[in-house]
Design a protein that fits this description.
The protein is α/β, with parallel strands linked by helices. The chain has two domains: 162 residues, Rossmann fold; 109 residues, N-(1-d-carboxylethyl)-l-norvaline Dehydrogenase, domain 2 (Orthogonal Bundle), CATH 1.10.1040. The chain is built from 13 helices and seven strands. A seven-stranded mixed β-sheet has the order 2-1-3-4-5-6-7, with helices on both faces. Strand 4, helix 4 and strand 5 form a beta-alpha-beta unit. Helix 7 packs across helix 8. The structure holds NADP nicotinamide-adenine-dinucleotide phosphate. NADP nicotinamide-adenine-dinucleotide phosphate binds next to helix 1, helix 3 and strand 5. The site of NADP nicotinamide-adenine-dinucleotide phosphate has 23 residues, from helix 1, helix 3 and strand 5.
C-alpha cells in the first residue's frame, strides 16, 4: 500500500517531537524536514533522519504538511510556501498553534490544500518527556472538514485523542490549556517563595507540597473544584487570612496581589451560601480588596 508522505517544517521543540513520533507510524513516510538554520548536533540526534533542508523550495511534494514554526511565523511560512512551485492539490496542511485557527494557512488553501490547526495539549519543554507522553494526549483539531477527516485516523493511530474544536472557540480552548498547564507552575513558584522565606530548602519544599497538590487535584477531578477547596477560604477564617496578608506585606509584597485575586476566586468557589457564610465572605472580600 502506498505510504502517506509527510513534510514537517520547523524543527523546534514541537517539530522534533513530531518528527520522532510520526516516524513510528508504518503508514507514513517522512519525506521532507525543513529548518531555516543548521541544527546543533543535540537537535539533530533527536530526529529520525539526518536529511534536513534549509530552503522551502527544496522540499518534495507531500500528502501531509505539518508547519511547526512559531505562531508569529505561520502565516509568513504559509505565504512563502504558496509562492513556490510545489503543488498543494490534494494535500493536507496543518499548523500546531493552540490559539490561531486554520485561517493562517489560507494562502495554501488557495493553492488547493485542505487546511487545519492540529494542537497537541501537551508541554514540549523536555524532549524525552514529550515523546513519552505524546501517546494518550488530546489534540485540538479545527479546520476544513476534509483535513479533519484525513488527520483524525492518523492521530488515533498515533495513540492520541483528537478533539474537534469549533473555529470561534479556539481562544477559550487555548485559555483552558494555558490555565491548567502554565498556572500550576505559578502556584508552585508561589509556594516555593513562601518556603524560602520560612527557611525551608526549595527541594524539600517541593517534596512537602507535591502530595498536597496531587491530592487536591485528585479530589477536584473526582468530585469538583468546589469540593476540593479546603483551608481558611473554605472555613472562612478571617484571622488566618489577615495573618497571611501581614506576612505577605512584610516578606513577599510582590505576591500580595496574586494571593488577593486567588482568595477572591476561592470565596466565589466556596459552596456555602448560608446567611452566616455570606456575611463572613463579604467581610473577607473587603479585606482582600
Ligand atoms: N511548546 C509547547 O509546549 C507547544 C505546545 C503545543 C503547541 N505548540 C505550538 O507548536 C508550534 C511550535 O512551537 P515550539 O514550542 O516548537 O516553538 P520553538 O521551539 O520556538 O520552535 C519554533 C521553530 O520555528 C522556527 N521559525 C520561527 N520563525 C520562522 C520563520 N519565519 N521561518 C522558518 N522557521 C521559523 C524556529 O527557527 P529558529 O530556531 O531558527 O528560530 C524554531 O525552530 C507553535 O505554533 C506553538 O504554538 C507549542
Amino acid at each position: 500500500m502506498k505510504k502517506i508522505t509527510l513534510n514537517i517544517l520547523g524543527l523546534g521543540k514541537v517539530g522534533r517531537v513530531f518528527a520522532q513520533v510520526w516516524s513510528r507510524l508504518p503508514e507514513v513516510e517522512i519525506t521532507g524536514l525543513y529548518h531555516r538554520r543548521p541544527l546543533s548536533s543535540d537537535e539533530q540526534a533527536q530526529l529520525p533522519t539526518a536529511k534536513v533542508v534549509q530552503h522551502l523550495n527544496q522540499l518534495p511534494p507531500a500528502d501531509l504538511w505539518i508547519i511547526a514554526v512559531s505562531d508569529t511565523s505561520i502565516l509568513e511560512v504559509a505565504t512563502k510556501l504558496s509562492q513556490t512551485t510545489i503543488s498543494f492539490q490534494q494535500a493536507v496542511v496543518c499548523h500546531c498553534s493552540g490559539i490561531l485557527t486554520a485561517e493562517e494557512l489560507l494562502p495554501l488553501q488557495a493553492k488547493g490544500a485542505a487546511i487545519a490547526s492540529c494542537h497537541p495539549i501537551l508541554t514540549f519543554a523536555a524532549f524525552e518527556q514529550a515523546v513519552t507522553h505524546f501517546t494518550g494526549c488530546y489534540i485540538g483539531l479545527e479546520g476544513d472538514s476534509l483535513a479533519v477527516q484525513r488527520l483524525k485516523p492518523l492521530l488515533i493511530a498515533l495513540g492520541t485523542h483528537p478533539l474537534e474544536i469549533p473555529r470561534q472557540a479556539k481562544v477559550l480552548y487555548h485559555l483552558m490549556a494555558v490555565v491548567s498547564g502554565n498556572f500550576v507552575a505559578i502556584l508552585l513558584d508561589f509556594a516555593a517563595k513562601c518556603a524560602e522565606k520560612s527557611l525551608i530548602d526549595c527541594k524539600m519544599a517541593m517534596r512537602i507540597v507535591a502530595p498536597l497538590m496531587e491530592s487536591t487535584l485528585a479530589n477536584a477531578i473526582l468530585h469538583s473544584p468546589a469540593e476540593a477547596l479546603s483551608g481558611p477560604f473554605s472555613r472562612l477564617d478571617k484571622d488566618s487570612i489577615h495573618k497571611h496578608l501581614d506576612a505577605l506585606q512584610q516578606s513577599l509584597p510582590a505576591q500580595e496581589a496574586l494571593y488577593k485575586a486567588l482568595g477572591k476566586a476561592a470565596l466565589q468557589l466556596n459552596p456555602d451560601i448560608s446567611l452566616e457564610a455570606n456575611g463572613k465572605k463579604e467581610a473577607i472580600y473587603n479585606v482582600l480588596s
